[in-house]
Amino acid sequence: MTTNNLLFYPTVFSHEDGSINVRVPDVGVATVGTDMQDALYMVRDALGLMLESETSYPDPSEPKNIQLEPWEIADTTEIVMVAYDLAEYRKSVAKTVRRNISLPEYLNNAAKKANINVSKVATEALEEVLYG
């Protein structure tokens, strides 16, 4: 398992009937796109949904070790290493939720005096603790 937020996985692109089937065997993600750009967008989104709340991720296989599925035709299928940036994905889909926290009064007073956004500091601290 890896904990890096920039992941590289062998990704299978299979061209079929005007669309591109895409799967990431190491993660168990599959989707489809209308063209290569759409396929990349869809698979990055699917992988992000699958792993967004995880803190460790499956190790990538070697592309040469990926087996094609019976419906994937070798002549129209390619296996490519694709980068998946989970930190960027999380930022792109994040919505803000209200959460009350407790902290010592002296820190609260000092933060107010220094115009420090406590929510921002808490978010950054949690990201560091959880995702390094």
Shape: elongated
Task: List low-pLDDT spans.
Answer: none
Q: Which percent range describes the beta-strand content? A: 15-25%
Query: Helical percent range?
Result: 25-40%
Main sheet properties: 4 strands, antiparallel
Please give the alpha-carbon distance between the first and last residues. Answer: 15 Å
Annotation field: number of helices: 4
Q: Radius of gyration, Cα only, in angstroms? A: 20 Å
Strand order, sheet with most strands: 3-2-1-4
Would you report the number of β strands? 4
Properties at a glance:
132 residues; alpha+beta; 4-stranded antiparallel beta sheet; 4 helices
Any overview of this molecule?
- The protein is α+β, with helices and mostly antiparallel strands and 132 residues long.
- The chain contains 4 helices and 4 strands.
- It has helices spanning 36-51, 86-93, 105-113, 118-131, and strands spanning 6-16, 19-24, 29-33, 77-85.
- Strands 3-2-1-4 form a 4-stranded antiparallel sheet.
- Strand 2 and strand 3 form a beta hairpin.
- The longest helix is centred in the first third of the chain and has 16 residues, at 36-51.
- The mean pLDDT is 91.
Please specify the SSE layout and strand pairing.
Elements: E1 6-16, E2 19-24, E3 29-33, H1 36-51, E4 77-85, H2 86-93, H3 105-113, H4 118-131
Antiparallel strand pairs: 1-2, 1-4, 2-3
Q: What would you say about this model in short?
A:
It contains 4 helices and 4 strands, in the order βββαβααα. With 132 residues, it is of the alpha+beta class.
